Amino acid sequence: MNVAFLTTTFENTTNGPAKFARLINKHPGFNNKKVVIFTEDISQNYQDVVKVKIPSLLNFSGVGFLYRLFAYFFKVIRYPGVEVVVSNNTMYGFLFHLFSRKKVVGFINDDQHIVPAFQLKYSALRSYIFSKLEKFALKRNDITVVNSKHLHQTLSSAYEVPSDKIFTLYKGIEIEKNKKLCLDKHEEDEMFRVLFVKTNYKIGGLYYLLKALEGLNGVHLDIVTSPRVKKSRLVKLARNCESVKFYHNLPQSSVFDLMDKAHCLCIPSEKEALGVANMEGMYHGCAILSTNVGGIPEVLDYGNAGILVPFGDENILREKLLYLMNNREIRMQYVLKGFEAVQRFSIQNSIKSFYQMLDLVK
Q: Is the pLDDT of residue 343 over 50?
């Protein structure tokens, strides 16, 4: 079986879908299935990767979205032997439903398009239109893949799709066998180190984290976010925090270095389909403080492997930060439980689930 895997991002691995595409490219064949990646985001040649050419002027426009639909469609149609199309964004399977007989699998990575239609905002109107397209694709997909039980239940209910047409595939991280945590790595630190990692800092709840840290002594905060964010804006938000450092566009290895140094990874998100950054923090020995939204509780074993708080309450967030800061023994318990819990989110399990999902495509 030849499988075409469509993804608009491949080299720019700042988000979960792109990381998963790279992962699949490292394991392109299993049980007589060969996966070929189709993407616009490559600057060099890779094995089993086909470049889809998109004019740079169309990168950030509605016309660009329509152009992409057709560009990916025609590239796959002309590629010999493709039987199944897997789209990292289910929208890109739209034309295959209309004009081909190929089997279609679509990934839905979040619930951002499921919004109340009465919100009179451009973003809400855009999400409403996209939700209709998403529902069309989901109802016609042979299988729709989601990354958490929360998203599985949300989509099945919102779009009135049978639960058995949706497949839950947890994204994984690189986990070394026999890795041991160094629990004494922070003993020399004079400050309690908190780390925030989120491309969209607003959805990630950075405002509430900064409010929670206002006036606290002995706390250093590292912020990793999108290079598109104006640093001056963040500096203004963080003006009442004792010690803050900003990072933009860091390679993954540098983010992991910051996790190795941090006592606590705190991403108090407004919404999150799963939360791969929390997994990575658990693996690198951080105590996790996050919110009880979306798929985050599934990663944190419903509060056993990290602390969960309601979104938007900086007072509770501050209380839990102080709790972790002043109770090393409790913090180490969360570190150990987090490290144990994250073992099930391995790359090997993700790959196995992906190919098990393809076995269901008839």
A: yes
Model-level pTM?
0.86
Cα separation of 134 and 137, whole Å? Answer: 5
Domains and CATH numbers, the chain: 2-172+346-359 (3.40.50.2000), 192-344 (3.40.50.2000)
The answer to whether 275 and 198 have CB atoms below 8 angstroms apart is no
Higher per-residue pLDDT: 51 or 178: 51
Residue type, 143: I
N residues, the chain: 362
Average pLDDT, the chain: 89
Axis-axis angle for helices 314-326, 328-341 (nearest 10): 100
Residue ranges of E strands in the chain: 2-6, 29-30, 33-39, 49-51, 82-87, 103-107, 143-146, 166-168, 192-197, 219-225, 243-248, 264-267, 287-291, 307-309
| Structural element, H or E, at residue 19 | helix 16-26
Q: In terms of pLDDT, which residue wins out, 298 or 12?
A: 298
Which residues have a Cβ under 8 Å from the Cβ of 29 and sit 6 or more positions away?
Answer: 35
Q: pLDDT at residue 163 above 70?
A: yes
Sheet (strand 307-309) strand order: 243-248, 219-225, 192-197, 264-267, 287-291, 307-309
Strand (E) positions, 127-242?
Answer: 143-146, 166-168, 192-197, 219-225
Q: Note whether 261 and 329 are within 8 A (CB).
A: no
The β-bridge partners of 224 are: 197, 247
Nearest to 93 by CA among 2, 1, 4: 4
Q: Which band of pLDDT confidence, cut at 50, 70 and 90, is reported for residue 132? A: confident
Q: By three-state DSSP, how is residue 177 classified?
A: coil
Amino acid type, 228: R
